[in-house]
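Researcher: Structure prediction, please.
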Amino acid sequence: MVKAGVSVLESATRCLMDVQLRTLKSQIDDVSLKQKRKERCIYQKKKRYTSIYFLAWIVLAILSGVFLYHIFVSGASFKYFLCKQGRLIWSAFYQFIPIHDTGVHPHIRGTEFEPVFMQKAAHAGYKQLNMTGVWYFMVIDRCAHRSNINSENVPVTNPVNNGPEVFALDKECYHAFYYKDDNWQCYGSVPWKTKHNLFFQLTYILKNFQENIYKIYIFLEELFLTYKLFF
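Model: Predicted structure follows.
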C-alpha cells in the first residue's frame, strides 16, 4: 500500500516536472524568437541606414563635383552668373570679320554695364567715348572663359578667341566700337546700314530672374522624385 502511494506520488511529481519543463522550454523559445526578431529588425535598420548614408555620400560627392566644376572650369554656368553681376537691362550681339581670318564671322555677345563698373571689373584704363548716348557692353563669353582666351584648343570661330573684352554702341546702334591701344576704334565690318549684322535688344533682369527660378523649381522637383524613388 505504501509502495503504491509512493509510486503514485513519484508519477505525479514526474508529470508536474514535465509540465514545468515544457513551460520553461516554451518560454525560452519565445524569448529566443523575440531576440531573433529584434536582431533581424536591428540588422534591417542598420542596413537601411547604411544605404541612406551611402546614397547621401554619393549625392554629396556629385553635388561637390558639380560645385567645384562650376567654380574652377571656365565657361561654366557659375562663371556666366558671376560675369553678369551688376549688369543693366540691355544686351547686344553682332558679327564681325577678323582681319587675320576673313573667312569667319564670329558672334559677339555683350551685356550692358556702367563704364565705371567695367573699369573696376575688367580694366582700369578703359575710357569713355567722346559722344553722347553711348552704350557700353562687356563681352560675356570672354569674361566667362578668361583662362581659355588665346588657347590653341579653342576654334577661331569661337567668340572666346575673337572679339574684344568690351565694346560700345553709338546712340543709334548703327556702329560698334572696340577698345584697342588705349582708344576706342570703330569696326569697319559691323555697320548696320550696309551689313545688317548688328543687333540690339532689351533683356529684362526680371525675365531672367523668373527663368532662373523656374530652373531651380525643376531641379528641386527632380531631386524630390529621385528621393521618393529610393525611399
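Model: The chain is about 50% helix and 15% strand.
Researcher: Thanks, that helps.
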